[in-house]
Structures are given as structure tokens and as C-alpha cells.
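LOG
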Amino acid sequence: MAATPYGEVPIAAAANGWQVSRVADTATSRKHPASFVVLTKTVERTATRATGGFGSYPSVQGMRSGKGSVVIGFDTEFVSDGTFDAERGWIGESEQVTRRIVSYQFAAIDPTDSDRLRLAVVLPAIYPGPRGPRVARLSFGKALELAITALGLHEHPLAEGWTAKGVPRQAVVDAAGKWHREWWFRQKGEHAHALPITLVAHFQNADLTAFVDPVKMHNTWDASYPTGRKRRRAKAGYSGYRNRRLDDREPDILRAVISASAGMVSPKPVEWVLPGENKRWARPVVISIRDTMAQSGASKLSELGDAVGVAKLDVPGDWIARMDEYLVAHPVDFLDYASNDAVIALEYVSQMYGEDQEVALTLPTAAARAVRGIIASELAERHAGKPLVEAGPKINFNLVFGGLEKVTKKTEQTVSFENQLAYYRQRELQPLDGAAATWIHACALSFRGGYNMSAELGLFEQTTHDLDLQSCYPTASSTIWDVDYLHPDGVILRTVNNVELSLDDFAEGGPLTPFVGFVSFEFPESVAFPCLPVPVEGSMVYPRTSGGARGVWSMAPEVWLALKLGARVMCQIGHFGRTLRLEDGTPSRLLRRPYKTLLDDRAQAKKEFGKKSFQQTVLKLMANSPYGKLAQGVMGQRGWDAWAQERDEVGGSAITSPWHASMTTSLPRAVLLATLNELHDLGYSTPSCTTDGFITDAELAVVDGLDLYGLSNLWREAREALTGSRDMWEEKHTQTDLLNVTTRANFSRQPGGVLAHGGYKLPEGIEEDSQADRDHMYELMVSRDGALPVTMKVFPSMEELTRVHNRLDFSPIVVHKQQTIEFDRKRRPVPDGMTANMVMVGDEVFEVAHVQTVPWNSPEEVELGRSVDRGLKRWDDELGEPVWDRSPVRRTRDQWLDYFDRLQVLLDEDGSVAEAERLDRIAKGIVIAQRQGIINIPWLASDRPLAERLDAFEKFGLPRPKERFWSHARSKTERQIDIDFDAIEPYVEDMLNVDPFASAAPVEVGEGAS
């Protein structure tokens, strides 16, 4: 069947119960309005709404705000295009056409019958333009208007004072005839109110960008008619504390959104007055943009559908790439497929937050809301029955949990504006006092991410186990103590300056002692895994010493463990905090109850739906979300602000706390590093470690039996309080063919083995975690001889989609690049003990070196070690492309030996190491020659004490030989050392001419030889 031209829509679907009508949209032109076909239908709900769903779990219910909103599921269908049309700018599209919109679809719960759904599909139609027939996109304002009218939302209980025509404008006109639009949005009373609407889709980056671009349209008009430019405001509109209002002349919804948790959402609701049936009527709405990507950990739409009992429909054959043709050939099937995606988005958030309820910005935001609510309830319980004057501050969440107070006109500033942290400044908060400011800022400087590294590279044919800490961050957060910001003397108990720390300083609580400090350190050479993180080139490394740096900011758990490992830790400045204690004297742990609620729900989901169920996965995300919210804004993260058209600080969350965030990551790092050190001392291998677990050849029973310098019992007590079980570890994978290349690049061909791709994008046709995936990655890494070619789709960024100038439409770009997956050198590879395995791939045999690592001595060494393989490419004029001068791969023994040689050169870049080695060889050569009778230096053969004779070498500019070397200088081993007679000659001449024990001073080295 030949495809109908784009825009010639069929209406055969009316035979299947769809009601058909036509509408016009004047957003692009009043003289030539765009035309659309609107199809509506009412259907029975098929979603699972039983009380046993995960929407009924206490933690999920705690995430709900209790505010009402009309939720509209939204989706679009489009096809790719690659044509150029100079006329598209007039109707708000790019001249370089990348896609054509086939349909817009909306779904809402029937306002009069919650067992039914109302559906609406809007199809762009051909209409007469000024230069012939054309098809335009729908404007966002018209889309809202159609959603309200086609779905009959004026019948909704939240539509106070609404009729099918809208609400009367006269109701917001005062006695003097002045119009007050704000009455619809703010003032309470008997008059009509704005309708709260939540527009939710799965991946709004694709759907919300499918409307008319008013900025592009106006830019086209201005460029064509420079003398008749329309008056435009520089700002997108008005932004208040709670809501925003877009510029009426250029209402651009993409200016009101941000990127959050993989979704496109609006941080503030947008006030919008839509036209009513005529000039006497209006449809005021407060619209919130939500994205199910941000509510599900970026899960697939099909998984969301399965979770709520609405299966995603399939499109047969290759129709999915030709949806415009599918609409023509199978209109009924097309409409069912298209509207079903909108239904899934609607039903998913309805089960999560309740029907006709406000949807949180993101799932982590909702989890933070639940955590804050549970903590607030606990604070109220602690001080129940006490006078309000006494209990008031102690039940204030911001004061007790974060040491922050609300900034008002009367508030005295505790931190200068330029020194304020964005996480609290953007929430109009500030530290309670000077001590709180000092403590908060020091904790923020100490924040680090998870521990990630590889300690041993190559093939492991023995059985290895991938072990994880169970509920790592929830357990850590519920273990740490709170600090007392409200103490009359401030949160800081004492400050130390320029002191060497000892374990006695941590007598109060060991690793939980409230402490943050700026420290320098040196670990014994016997420590396999130093535990104090140092930022180097954007990542955390763990060197043996702090090197030339003055120090780093660190938290108590790792400083305490460093002391346990025998490190010398000097503290330039450090603060010991006051512990917040309950009336019985026990430390306060405000995060324990919220996490227990979340973990109880996750355990119930595992039992009810299965260990690998989608519900369990979502609840796992819920349980892990508060950690991210504790740390939000602590490091001053920046993101694209579409409203201001600039990059700005992200700001904090409702529960951001540098103290809790820094301790939450520090404690697991300490636990993992304690584990690695104890396993190393027992002779076990630990090839890789990532955030909450590691790979080892020790069995689970061995790891379970470790004391971890006392950390094991501390962690297990928290686990018992949270779950009733003292289990600490769980085994995720086991394999006997582990190939470890670098951090997060571990491969096994065995079905139950580990598989971490190291950021590599699989070729099309290979399903992730399939046997084909395992075989492909294993063979690729074993046989690699250069950078790996990668083909991947790259989507426009949030900035590219929402910027005013040169805005891009949503369309993926296919990128071809070379990717290097090699050891990240967070530890120093060493040649000692290097072996190799031979692995067969097809008919070829490849060598895979097995390499050990040790800690770098200093951060400076890390930089040198990482610089070895930089600048390996050069431009090849003949090929017309960059080529590798030498392979960046470190896979074989020869390749690693090349690395070791190059590293040695860099470590000795100033020649000091080589010169020291040269002089050492000369000194030893003189000793061997003297002891074996080749030369005879009188004062070396004298009866003076040997120590004095050896000390005299330094007077000739040579290092002092050791007594042991002198004693064995006649042995066979020393005889095998080649003596460079040319090198020792000038020094021997000097030693013959000058007696260091005589009164005369020795001459300069080399003068005697001249």
C-alpha cells in the first residue's frame, strides 16, 4: 500500500469507537492556522490496582504530598527525517528537519468514573499555508487546551467553578474594573480556581520537544522583517518562590524545565491562562512537567507497564521506524499502540502517588520527602509533652539535622555571601552560628565518593567471588551519630592545630567519633591498601603518603583506620564535634528509622514479587536515593538552567547534610579498605573493588569471619537494628575465568559470572548480559591490540534542547569513536611477580599478562604514572586520520615491560634517581675492587674502624656503602657485578691522592684524574 502523504490522516478509526473532530491552532499564524484531527475514546481500566501493589507500601505512601492534581499521561509518535525545508522556521521548526511528528496522545482517569480512562489522540493534518499546503506541529498551549476539552477535565472534582466553556473572566475583575489573574492562582474564595495539572510522559526529552518552538518562530519573523520586530522580553517570564509564569508573547515551556534523575521535569509549577470558549471565558491551569524516567531509575517503559498491569504493545515487523505509514495502513492498531504508552505513564505514577495526586519531581525527591517526614515525626516524639518554648527549636528539622536556620530580613548573617555554600543559599537557609558554619564547611570539603580500584590485573583461573555489602549506604547512614548543633556552646567540642593524632583522640566512639580535619599522612610500606583518599586528576587515589601536598580533608572513619594500620597522621587543623545524645545518654541516629522503613518495604517486595522483580528494583532505588539527596549540592555541582540560560549551582535537597553525607561514604570506604588489608595479610587476592563490594578468591565464610579492626561488629549491629539479621555480605557472582582489566571492567564468560563493561557500548544486536555479550566482551578484551572502535547513538543534551540560540530538535546522532579500556592506574603496577596466561580465541592464541600492583608513594607519582600513555596518537597524512604511534594497550608482558621502562624514566625525569644509582654503583665497584685486590687504597686497608672508613666515602661525593656489602664483597654474588673501571677511575685517583683522615681537605672529584 502506498503511504498517504504526511498530514492526510485517516478517520477509519471512528468505526472502532473513536470520536473524530477537527481543530485549528493559531499559534503559528492567525491567517493560516494549523489544522489537526482529534480522536477521543473512553475505555475500561486494565491496570492492577489491588491494595497489595507497591503503591500501598508505607515508604511509598510517605512520599506523597497529599495535594491533588489532575494527572495526564502523554506521549508522541514520530519518524526520523533528514530533509531541508527553508519554510519550517515560520512555523517554529528547524529548517534542517530531523523528525516529523505523527501524533500526540493523552490519557486521563475519567473524572466521573475512576474505573475508566479517557483517551485523546491529536494528528497533524494538511492545511493551506501562504505558499501552498503544509503540516505544522501543535503548540504546547493548544495541546493543554485540547487535553482539557477532549478529556472533559472540567468535570473533575479539582476543577472548582469550571464549566465546559472554562471559567468566567469576570470573576477576577474587581469593583473598579481591574483584572486580577492572580486570584485564580492564589486567593481563596468562592470564585473559580486554576486547575492543577501534571503532564507525565516517559522520556520528556523526546516528547516535550515535539511542540512548536516559539523562539524559533519569532526569530524567523524578526530576521525577515527587521523593521517590524515584535517586542520581546529578555527573560522567559516571572519566577516566584512557588510558581512561574511564562511570557505571554513567547510562552516557551522548555525554559521552565531542568534535567533530573534522567528525566526532564519542571522544578516549579507554571501558571498558564489558556483561552476559554470565547473572550468571556478562560482556562487557568497550573502545569507541572514530570517524567517517569525520573520515577523509575530510567527503566524501560515496558517494565513500567508490566509493574502496573498494562503491557506495552508491540508494532509488528519494521513498522516502528515507519509509524506514519503504520497509521495509514493500520489506523486502529496505531491508535491503540500510541495511546497505550500514555496510559502506562499515567497508571505508573497513579499507583506510585495515588490517583489524582501531585507527583514528586523525581523518585529520589519523593524519598527525601519521606525521610524528612519520618525524622520530623521522631523529633516530635522525643519532645512530646514539653513546653513549646523549650521544644520548638528541638523539633525544627533544619536546626537539629542540618544546623541551618531560615534567612529572614531580621536574620544576622553568619557567613559572608561569597563563602556561602550553594546547597543552603538557594534554599534561603544559613548556618545557625559560627561553629555550625565551620563544621558544615569542613564536612563539605571532606566529602568523597565511593572506593573504586583494581589491585591485580589479568586472568584468574581460580574460583573468585563477587561480594557486596548488603544495603551499603542505608546501613552506613543509619550507623553514624548525629551532632548537636543546638548546644549552647556550639557544635564544635574542641579544635586541634598542628598535632599528631592518635587513637586516644577517638576514644568517644572510635570510627564514629565526630571529627573532621585537614591531615597529612604516611603509611608504613607494609600496608597494602592505604585508606586516606586524595583527589588526583578528577578521581580518588590512595597513596602511601600525602607527598608534597600539605594535606587533605578527611573524616573520622578513615583517619581512625589509618591509625589502626600504623600510619602517622598529622592534623594541621581539625574539629571534634559534640554528639547529640538522647535522654538516656545514647547517641542519636536520626537516619535509622527512615532507612528501616525503606528496607522493610524492600524486603516485603522481594517476598511478594521476587528478588529480581521490578518492584524490588524500584524500592532498592528508593532505599538508596536518600544518600544522593544527603549529598546533593555539597560539592557545588552545577547544571544547565534553561530559565536563566546559563549553568548554575544545582542547590541542595530537603535533607542535604554535609556531615551525614561525608560520613555515609567514609564509613563504607573504611569497611572495604579494612577488609582488603586483612585479606591481603591472610594471603588472599582482591583484584577489584567498587563502592560497595569487591572480587576476591576468598570464600564468603572467610570474609564473614574477619574482624575488620572492630568495624565488623559495628556494621553488623546496624544491620541487626535495620533488618533483624547480622548478615553483612552477600555473594553476587562466582566464576573461574575472571578477566580483570581495570576498575569496572571485569569479565566472565560463565552465566553466573561478573560482567562489567567499563563503559563500552555493545554493538547493535547483542543483548546486554546475554551469552553473546559475555563472549563478545571476553574475546574483545583478550585480543585487543589498540583502541576499540565504538558506534553509539548520542542524544542532544538538556542544554542543546532548551537553549534559545541554535536550539536542537530531539534526534540522535550516530557517533563513531575509539575507546580505550585500560588500567586506570589508581595503584602502581609493578614488574615483580608478573606472569602470563595464554588464551585461545578462535584459531589464535593471545597472551594476557598477570600484573600485581602496590600503592603509589605520593599523589605526584600518580600523575607521572598516568602520563606514560598520553600523546600516543599522531596524524597520518596518507591515511587522513590519527593513528597510534605505539599501542596504548597494556595486555602482554612486553607491553607492560615497556610501561615500566617509560615510568622509570618519568620518575627519574630530573636525573636524580639515575645519578644516585650511578654513584651507588661506583661506590660498590670501589669496594669490590678493593676487597678483591684489584686496587689498593691505603686508608681503606688501614686498621681504622670499618664504620669510619665507610663514612669517608661521603667526603668524596659517594654514598656510604653498607657494612654487610663490605663483608660480602669477596663472594661469588658480588663478583658477578660488573665494575665500570672508567667510571670509578677518577674517584680511585682522588682516594689515592687524598687521605680523608689526614689534616688536608680532599680535592674536588675528578681533579686527581686530570
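LOG (cont.) second protein
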Amino acid sequence: MADQHPYHFFLNGFDPDSETTGELTRLALADVQRSGLSPETLERAQVKLFKGGTELLKKRLRFAHVDGNPLLRAHRLIEFPHLDGKGNVTRYEYKPFPSLHFKNEKEPRRYLQGKGDEPTPYIVPDVWAAKDKGNKPLWITEGVKKTLKLVQHGRLSVGLSGVWNFRSGKDRHDQDNKQLWRELEGFRWTGRTVYIGFDSDLWTNPQVRFALYELAFTLYQRGALLRFPVWHGAKGIDDFLVLRDDPDQALTELESTAKDLEGLLCTDHRNEIMGALYRSTGTQGVNERTLIDKVAKGLGQKAKDIKNDIARQRHNELKQAVDLTLYPYFINDTGGVCRWRRERDGTEVPFELSNFTARIVEDVSLDSGLEVTRRFTIEGGTKDKTFTRASVRTTEFLNLNWVVNNWGNDAIIRAGQSTKDYLREFIQIHSNHNSVKRRTVYGHTGWRQVDGTWCYLMANGAIGADGVDVELPHEFMETGRYCLPKNAENEKEVLDAIFSFLDIGKAEIFFPALSYVFLSPLTGLLDPMPSFSFYLYGERDSLKTSVAVLMLAFFGKHSRAGLSNFDSTANAIMHRSAILKDTLFLVDDLYPSSQQKEAQRKETVAQLLIRACGNRTGRGRLNPDSTEKISPIPRGMVIITGEEIPGLQSTLSRLITIEFAQGDINTKKLTEVQKQAGLFPHAMSSYILWLRDRIASIQADFETELYESRKGSVVESTSRKIPEHLIYLHFAWKMFLQWAVERCGLKEALRDEFFAIGREIFTRVAERHTRRIEGEDPVKMFFEIVGALLTQGKLRLDHRDSGYAGRLGGDSGELVGWYDKEHYYLLPVPLWHAVQTYLRYEGGHFPFSKTTLYETLERRGILETRGGKREYTQRFGDRTIRVLTLKRGKDDPLQDTEGEM
């Protein structure tokens, strides 16, 4: 009976003497007995006949039928469980009796494993226990039965399911598949004696030799001491031992006579040796160099020649494996960029340029309206990591410094004089082999013709066109600044909110402010462009900034936070004024400073901005190659708030000043309108769309109105600029009211009434500003300073006839000239020095140079000349002195000075 049979564990309840199933059982039993495997060995390894149904077999193999026939119906299976180091079953391997024949396979299947199971080595518990014991010799052989036979005779043994299955991958050309199984990698190989006992057909089968040498070379580089037993008269080690009367003695003799690596190598095996050496090397370690030396000695060659052969083969194989469409560049298997470098002997070797690849995915033209620059959007990464996309200006692209700036230390460019140039070339070639998206991005607000269509650019796109990309600096994108709805809504409700804006406070503030708001979208459409800025002037807490921010609310969600101010540099302010085309740009808070240098700096920035807006020009600068640099120029309308007014007459003529005083603003109404400010962008969108439909007619109307208005100015002014500023305010006011009629339902009678009110208010504002300009006359300033110094007694003028006795000024004052009833005779040098000294102590400076002052005095008929000379000699007593001769007359420039004139 089966349970009394010596192999009862192996038989697992099957009876070898059964008339129905005994034949298959006997075949299986005979197989293990032919290999000399004892019942005890089989039981320790849990090897037995499979006893279970189709479902259990299907669970383990993932199949239970062969060519449609149930596997268990005509076969008996020996079950070999594979165990891990903890004794857990990882997979099952089966040997069928009789052998299986599949329709599409020439050779029968001698062993079966589960579909998808990896052919891991066969390792029994005793061997697992010794994996860290490098002093324990280890056999490596083919198959489970040979392994068990060696274990039965006291040897530690690992079984491979095939001569090539010491590797964890099927593709031996793939570097990742050249690694040992993790089960084998876990063994300590350094100093361990390893017997490689493949079947004896290795001497006649080149592929078996190839596998043996590759395994041997792989273990050698890990420090193993290799031995190669050689036997005759039997194929496998199990067959050899079965034929011996004393297997233990025979095994000991095999080990003692086993060849070392040098003894195994022979020239007849050169092809297999070189192939194995090529596939197993590449680490450049100490053991690898020693291995190559041993192989060179065994084959009678120089180690250098073998290394060159390996390198050449590796390069040729690599060249066949990589994509040559980018030649001479390619991407290696780690995701880096390599270049084929030609050597002196004509061969090509790969040289790594970087550990990453990169390509341009987007070519962006950045159109600022003044110049067009470019930038690339570049993606890159290694095999295991994708980098964030980098935005790189083309001026920065060539030097590749952007790689570290964007991707940090993960992206490594190899050392070398030309490496960066080669890598840059690769990126461009690689990009051209893929699709590069090209698009234009506009970097400003305001009007622009795109594909022949007028549209108005804002931070969130364009009004009047779809698919237009706009990118403004980050500070303009926050909280919806300079963002307008593309379709206006609630136009009638919007008009009510605008009229509430006019009612917040003093009409001389809010009517010009609203006209200025609606003038700003006209800036680039009108020729000439408006040449003035809007200056909100008043004491601290007069709410001028609140009003300015409310004006900005017509162009999106603005707040006091983040406003441009005079703490910024002139270049920064000019740059922003160029970006904000055909819209409002607020520069806040020109406040007094206790430090003279800081006050002068702010004054300089304000003067520069105001003049640039008035002249619509920028500061000329040169590039390093002496070509002229594109200078930013203001292209919108500027609002300035401050507690001081710039002092130069010519600067004031480029402004419209709006003065704020306490009580001018109704704070309650201001708060109510601020709550309605969300409607203002809809008003501006509607207005812009209205303008867009009649640009040509608006330009023609303005040209006519400008011509007619210049003929009949309503404001007398020392500056011709102020009446012209009024023309723009009137025209913008007219456009606003006409829009309100056509789009918001304003009655025409009410339009005419508002137009008349606006013209009257604008005229009053202009007249007041004209008086301010006249008060800043440099000639008047000059004589006021001289008069003050005479009054203080610091200067004196002697009478031309009576001399000191008829003096003007102080008794001990510095003599700066003479006078009579008709003229002043002034000493140029001491007088100019006195004025400059006075201003220096006051923390200011005279706006004119000495020459410009003299020219102005001459032009106004105050300074007499003789023979074209402004300074000429006069006789005073017994002296002849060169002086400036100034007329007195009814407009005596020093008429308020104390003393007899």
C-alpha cells in the first residue's frame, strides 16, 4: 500500500501498483529514483506528487488545460515548491509524466511553471541559512533534481531553471536585465568558493559555454573563487553520482580536481569568452581589470587589445540600439544625452554630454509694441524624473546657465570645453524633430491690430478678438488689475454709477477726473497723443489716493496695496508706463522728505516721468555694440498724487493739477461709490467696444476739432500747452457723453447740458493751473531772491551818482551793482553766486543756467545788449566795469525792494 511505501511522502496517497493510475505514478517515481534522490531528501524539500483538483492547479499555474485537454486527465505531476528565506512558498514548479507536447512547440516541455512567474533560482532552506556565510562553498547547477542530489550529499547548492536564468531579465542586450536575481544578489560572494556544475554538454554546446563564462565572470567580479568540476560518462551531476559506487568520495574528488578560471580558459572558446566578457563587464572596478588580465593571459593576447575590442563592440551595439535620427547625438538608456566622438583611428566612441535630455516645446514671440523678443519653453528630465518646464529668453539660451537656475543640481552638464555648445545644438536638433508650438504673446495693454483686426489688450486677454495671449508683469496680474470683461453688462446701471462718481465731491475734481479716465483709451488712437499728466495735489489725508484708485477701478480691481510710488527707480517707473498703453498708470505719493538727497531724487524721477509723458519720448541709451537701445516711453495716461508740486515752469506746463483740500470730498458718498466700483469695468468694456467700431471717424473728428480749437483758445496762458490739454479733455468728455447716449440711453438734452458744464469746469481748472505756472516763472524767482537778499541786507546796490550814500540793501552788504532812475547795472559773477548760495542753503537749485537766464531776460526786453553782447562796460566814477544792464521802467523787477528806487 502507498502509506507503507518507502517513498510514501513523495507518493502523496497515489498507489504505484494501481491498475488504473499506477503506470503514471511509477513513471514519476522512477524518475526521482534514477536521480538517486532519497525519500528523506524529497520530504525535507517537500517534493511530492501533486494531489488536487483542476481549480487548485489553475490557481498555481494559471492554466489547467493543454491544447483544450485537461492536464490532470493523462498526466501525473511532481511538485517542487520554491521557498524563500523564511520558508514561505513563492511559486511551484512541476514536472509532468509523460512530458507535455504543445502544438506550436517542437520540443516537449519537461518542466512547467505558472504563467507570468519569474524563473527564479531553486534554493532550499539549508542553503538560505548559509547565504551570508562566505566561508561555505556553494554549488550552482541546472535544475531542481541536480540541486537536491547535491544537497543530499551534504553540499550547498542553487539550481537554475536554465543555463541563462542566473539573470533577472530575458533580454541580455538590456543593461537592466544583466543583473543577477535578487535572490542571488543577496548572497555573500566575496571569498566564497563557488563550483559551477553545468551539464557536460557545455564542451560541445557553445551556448552553454557562453552562459557558463558569463556567470563565471559575473561572480568573479563580485569576489567569488571559481571552480569548474569536470566529469565524464554522464550528462548531469546527478547522473554522474548515481553511477558511482561511492558518490560522496566521487564528489570530493570532483571538487579537488576542479579547474580554476585560468585552467578553464582556452583559445577554442574565444568567441564565447569574448562575448561573455563584453556582457558581464562595464563597472571599471578592480576585479574587472584583474579579470581582463586573466582572460588576456589565457587567450594569449594583450589586455589593452581586449579592452579595445570590448569597447568597440559595445559602441557598435550601442549605435545599432539607439535612434540615429539625431546623429551624431543620441539619448542613452539612463535618459542622458551622448555624442558620437570620432577618434584618430576613425572609430566613433560615445561621449556623455549630460545626465538629462531637453527640448523646446514652445517658441514664443514677446511683442511689447516697441520691440519683439523671444523666449523658449523647455521641458526636460532624466529617465526617472521629469523637470518642471523652464521659460528661457533666447538671449540666455546659448550659455545654458538656465539649466541650473531652473532645474538645480538634478540636471548635470558634463565637464568639457565644448560640452555646452554640443548640448545646445542637440536641444535645437531634438526640438526640430518634434513639433514646436509657435505663438505670439503681447506684453502691453491697449490698442493693437492683430491679423488686421483692432482689439484692446488687457491682462486677461483682448476685447474685440479671441485667442489673443497677453502677459503682463506679475504686479499687474494680482487681484484682477487691468482685467476687463470681454462683454459689457448692465450698461444703464453702469451710467448711474458713473454719475454717482461725479457727485462724490467738488466738481473741479471729479469732472476732469472722469474725462481723464475716458481719455486714456484714446491715447494711442489720437495724433498727436495727449502730452500731459494728471496731478492730484493736496495735504495728507485729503483722500487724493482714494480718488485715484477709484479712477483705476474703471480698468479692473485695484487697491491701494501694491501701487507704484516714487520709492521705485526711474527705470522701473518708465518701464511700467510703457507697458500700460492706452490705460491709466498711477504713481502714488510724491511726499516731502526730510533728507535733501532723497527729496532731490524723487523730484528728479517725477520730472523725468512728467517730461517723458509730455514729450512721449524716453531716455536714449546704447547697447554694448553702440546701436541704440529701445527705450521705454509712456504710452498711456499717468496719474500722480503728491503733497508737493514740481517746481519747474516747463514741467508744470505738462500737467493738469487738481488741488484737494479738506472738505472737498464727501466721504459717505465716496464709500457708496466704492461699493459700486465693480460696475466700472463694464462701463469701460462697453466704451472700448464702442470706440472700436468707429476708430477711423473718431480720428478724423479729433483732427478737425484740434485744428478748430487751436484757432480759438478759450484760455489765456503763458504756455501754449495748457489750451491744448483742454482740447483733449473736451474731446474725451464729448466721446464719453456720446457713448452714454448711444449705449446707455442718456438723453441728448442731458448730454448737451453735461457737455456745457464740463467745458466750463475744465476752463476754470486750466485757468487756475495757468496762474500756478506763471507763479513759477524762473525770471520772477531770480528777482525775488535778489530782492530778498537786498531786503535782508546781505547784498547792496550803490547809486550810480551818489555811490554808497544812496545805496539799496544793507550797510555791510556785498556790492552786486549800481542803479539809477532808468537801469540796474549788475555785476554778473557776484550776483549769480549770491543767488546760487541762497538756493543751496534752501535745499533747492535754480532751474535755468546763467546763459539761459540771460537769454530769457533779453527775450523779454529786460536785458539791454550792445553790439550783440549781453555784458558790456559802463563807467562808475573813475572805474570802468563790465555789467549787465537791466531796464527799470513800469515793470521794475525789484520794485518791492526797500529804499529809494
